[in-house]
User: Which sequence fits this backbone?
């Protein structure tokens, strides 16, 4: 069995969507979203529900503890992406985040926070949602990719990552902020950091070619290499296939890299082999859910808390 790592949670929260649709409120700055055209909305919702259920079952088969909540509010089309509104941290800390889209703010749920308090050791909950009226947004572990080992918060500069909110989080939680600009080949800014990069215990996936400031790009890669990780570079096509939107988890017998089937297919054999040296790849088929502009990483909120005995 691979050694436990603070980077790889053994338990996660997932929210199963009952009314999945592509969120029109977030389409302006999310180039990863896809229009469903004339597709039947009820059929799309059913497919998303089934994909999510199958993903949960596959993760549980590998020994990941999955706390599933039901997303039954039709006014929350992105409820399947809970990692944007809360995160958990070693030492018993929980953060709640300010969200840009009005309808995404409805995703925050007290029952999830109460479950965390009941099942895990929670010392405090810091709620940043009061920053929303001032237009200060920080969309959780979508906006930030956290290196829990080296205590660095990597963040693409965007409307969903306000520097004031980021500084407050980093001060409270003991992370060093590392902000950088990133765009696609059409000069459209990357909306969330977690579509651009993934940090595991022994490796990091990153679309570094999309970081537009060369000096900053070299600095980001250097920091990842200094941590002892193997840096696996992704091209723009692989980023578009959500190869960067993966998450390392602790399974029953080994660490896992959960990613979508789309992402898995986009990786080269050499890249898969480099990942497989320290984590078992677990591809999950969620093509309908990916129409909303996020993939496997977005659907999971990692639990970095000590369980209650």
Assistant:
């Amino acid at each position: 069995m691979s050694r436990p790592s603070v980077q790889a949670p053994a338990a996660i929260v997932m929210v199963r969507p009952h009314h999945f649709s592509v969120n029109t409120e977030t389409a302006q700055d999310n180039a990863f979203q896809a229009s469903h055209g004339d597709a039947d909305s009820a059929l799309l919702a059913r497919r998303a529900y089934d994909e999510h259920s199958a993903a949960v079952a596959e993760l549980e088969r590998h020994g990941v503890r999955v706390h599933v909540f039901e997303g039954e509010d039709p006014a929350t089309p992105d409820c399947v992406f809970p990692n944007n509104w809360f995160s958990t941290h070693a030492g018993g800390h929980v953060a709640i985040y300010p969200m840009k889209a009005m309808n995404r703010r409805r995703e925050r749920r007290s029952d999830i926070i109460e479950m965390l308090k009941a099942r895990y050791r929670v010392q405090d909950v810091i709620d940043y949602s009061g920053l929303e009226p001032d237009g200060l947004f920080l969309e959780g572990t979508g906006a930030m990719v956290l290196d829990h080992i080296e205590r660095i918060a990597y963040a693409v500069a965007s409307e969903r990552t306000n520097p004031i909110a980021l500084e407050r989080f980093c001060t409270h939680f003991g992370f060093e902020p590392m902000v950088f600009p990133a765009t696609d080949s059409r000069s459209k800014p990357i909306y969330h950091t977690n579509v651009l990069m993934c940090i595991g215990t022994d490796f990091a996936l990153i679309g570094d070619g999309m970081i537009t400031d060369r000096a900053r790009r070299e600095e980001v890669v250097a920091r990842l290499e200094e941590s002892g990780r193997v840096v696996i570079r992704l091209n723009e096509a692989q980023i578009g296939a959500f190869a960067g939107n993966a998450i390392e988890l602790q399974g029953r017998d080994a660490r896992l890299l959960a990613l979508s089937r789309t992402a898995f297919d986009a990786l080269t054999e050499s890249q898969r082999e480099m990942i497989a040296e320290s984590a078992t790849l677990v591809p999950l088929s969620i093509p309908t859910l990916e129409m909303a502009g996020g993939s496997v990483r977005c659907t999971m909120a990692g639990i970095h808390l000590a369980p209650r005995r």
Summary: Residues 11-302 form a domain with the L-arginine/glycine Amidinotransferase; Chain A fold (CATH 3.75.10.10). The chain has a mean pLDDT of 94. DSSP finds eight helices and 15 strands in the chain. The first strand starts at residue 11 and ends at 17.
